[in-house]
Amino acid sequence: MDIVNKLNRIFLSQDREKGRCYLDELERYKSAARSYSLVEGTVSVLSDMHTNASYIYYGRFARVLGLKHPSGEGAIPSIWEKHILDLIPREDLYGKYLEELRFYNFVKRLPRKQRSDYCWVSKLRMRTTSGDTVWVCHRLFYVPDPFNNTLWLALCLYSPLSFDWPGGGRAVELATGQVVELGSRSNGKILTDREIQVLRLIDKGLMSKQIADTLSISVNTVSRHRQEILAKLQVKNSIEACRVAQDLGLI
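The structure corresponding to this sequence follows.
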């Protein structure tokens, strides 16, 4: 099904006034993503985390990376732009995921009105059409949902790295330029103490009933903790959750 038609059906099947607001806001941010690609030459990816869809705009930098689209823009039924991510070396890609996970949870902890005040800036390598690698500046912005407490859109911008800086990525306050280096010190705030307990037992191979008996809680509570863990770590299953948590030093 065409993504635009799918989104129209999803949003407008809700309260009609809210549905129209979603569509209008989505068009506004799609226009912003398109403008970045036209003015800065970036490869811009706007991902809708509610409908699992992405809108991609191929600026001049796309030619260096061998990315082409007949109209210069396109849409995919996923929030993972695989054909772009495949250009990033595996070691850089996993580091990118971990950094973005820290930033995602940093933004979620902010008061709702401040969640659009920060962006994530990092550097990574990407393969070019010649097979060489170039350093790329990656910027990430989150847009909160206008009607609830979730994060709705993610805007990723890929452009040539025009200047270098020591260390990895950092959060930047957009109004002042103040840098917030999240690093490993923020890892412990991602999961609650109880969620870490549950994840440690999952990592040991215990099933939900065994975890419930060990912690003297109900199986339903264990299931709720499992879902929260997957959401906070932005993974699909418990195996991935344990792997990411180990890399972050949580378990």
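Residues 191-247 form a domain with the Arc Repressor Mutant, subunit A fold (CATH 1.10.10.10).
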